[in-house]
Amino acid sequence: MKKLSALLLLNLCILPLAYGQYSTRKVITTDIDNFWTAYDSIRTTNDSLKQLYYIQKLYVNRGTPGLKAFMEAKDYTPGSYVFAIRRYPKFWASVRNNTYKAKILTSEFDPAIKTLNSIYPELKPAVIYFTIGALNSAGTSGNGMVLIGAELATGDSTVDVSELPPALKSGLGPYFRSDPFQHIVPLNIHEYVHTQQHSEAYNLLAQCIYEGTCDFITELVTLKTLPLPYMSYGPEHQPELKAQFATEMFLNTYRNWLYNGTNNGKVGDLGYFMGYTICRSYYNHSKNKKQAIKDMIELNYADTTAVENFLVNSRYYEQSLAQLHQAYEVKRPIVTGVSVWPNKPVNPNTKEIKIDFSAVMGRSTAVDYGPGGKDTYPVTGISGFSPDKKSFTFKVDLQPDTDYDFIITGGGFRSAEGYPLVSYTVKFKTGPK
């Protein structure tokens, strides 16, 4: 009986801790006050060194672990802040009051996080930090922390973006018009889900599912679709987006789909919508909904086989995985010509080798040792791309009666559209003197 009473007492002590781990005490907002203290001091002088001193002493040095993690994740420096403060005074003046309001919203997170815990019982606690960034991110996560950039996350249609450069304005203008301040709870849930994920993505498909998982689960928690531009644009243009994504999903560049601004009439971040749609399809085709949620959150995004199996099981695409890979492969550029021939002796006085490609190429390049390693590697420099970007010339240093080889790699050479080159090994032998 004493043993039973002891166990009962232990459980009574543990239960409040278990249910209290998602309390608003885990929402930290002190960085907001510290930033505006530093901001007011910065505005008293035009001396840039003094401004750097103020932001360092009054904001960075007093920063929470969340601020330090946010700065590291987004490569913010004291100079980043001073630059933004000096260049965009109308922006800062218009957003200031909203950032303070974040402090009174903390109680609204508890119900949403408890709902998240109910659909994903394995949920681990995370600390939510409201910080001030330098206009690059409304939120991210890392090391069990939700990191919110309040200068963006608390914005609304009243925020003045008139001083921002065109590229920044094109992204933040529509974002603020979507009134993110009114939807700050979903933003926090999205980032909270990120704290439960474990691995980094290897390619575009994995990264889109990584982000889409958070959007879809946020919708399950809040029972509302995220009011972001890509969630309005996506459903209206899904057929063409689906077709385009089918040929690009295996790329390891995100530029057309993620973390980008409006381009060619399309809104940015449409990869979020594609990932969300794939996750929704996976969920809808799953008999065990709770297991489907677990599958999404715990997916090994670095494992291409696991990610591709998830795509197949989502039944989002009618084509087989092999067909999808083929649609991608036919887009990759190939080497169509080399100025030296493998079956013909090359003049040892040759100083350049030209490579021709099947498509207009982008700026990136890479070359590697061939099967013979360093001893058979002839490249000493580059002359660069031709004006039409469909050929590239290497400088070489050759010896008579010698075998040479090197690899033109798809890891570096890419088409202007971003597709990696099918790697090609250049092999030849020089003739006598």
From TrEMBL:
Domain of life from the UniProt record: Bacteria
Keywords: Signal
Record flagged with keyword Signal: yes
Endpoints of the signal sequence: 1-20
Protein name from the UniProt record: DUF2268 domain-containing protein
